Amino acid sequence: EVQLVESGGNLVQPGGSLRLSCAASGFSFSDYYMDWVRQAPGKGLEWVGRIRDKAHAYTTEYAASVKGRFTISRDDSKNSVFLQMNSLKTEDTAVFYCARDLGARAQSLWGQGTLVTVSS
Amino acid sequence: DIQMTQSPSSLSASVGDRVTITCRASQGIRNDLGWYQQKPGKAPKRLIYAASSLESGVPSRFSGSGSGTEFTLTINSLQPEDFATYYCLQHYNYPWTFGQGTKVEIK
Would you call A103 and B45 a contact, using CB atoms and an 8 Å cutoff? Predict the structure, then answer.
């Protein structure tokens, strides 16, 4: 089955760190760029960042709101993409989704999301 | 950053109505725009890519148009399952940006 499954969401204190994972199956993961998108409770969608493929040196792009605090990485041998989140703030509370190359013409694919709550 | 101004923010419509949602970009983005549908508690689903191309499996009552700075999502003959929130996303320049969303409610 073609799918993305996120994990790692949790309750974390302000200033803390968390690592989200997204496991892909059913398609050639290494061929695709991967994106992260988040949605604060009751709010709209916010693009977080992306990682390119090996052919493009696994380079990354980030939203200004997370740049310097969040890091996206991937392990093609494990068909997984990761979001390392440091120096978390209360405003980072959101459902985080991974998605397969949002800019591509290929069939869109999103995970089910994982909830990150930043609170003391 | 490119700002995507989506309108209206919400609308009420009846089954069978034609609905139009607009996204305006603060600068030209060619046709690097997608339209997404999101239902409560679910991940977004792309309906349209490249401004006017229908995603595989999406009903033909959905259509997109536009290029440059003005884009439109049209739903012909609104169905009960279409009541949801719709977003546009520009992927022309980083950081990519979504519109603020349009909630389509039942009249």
Answer: no
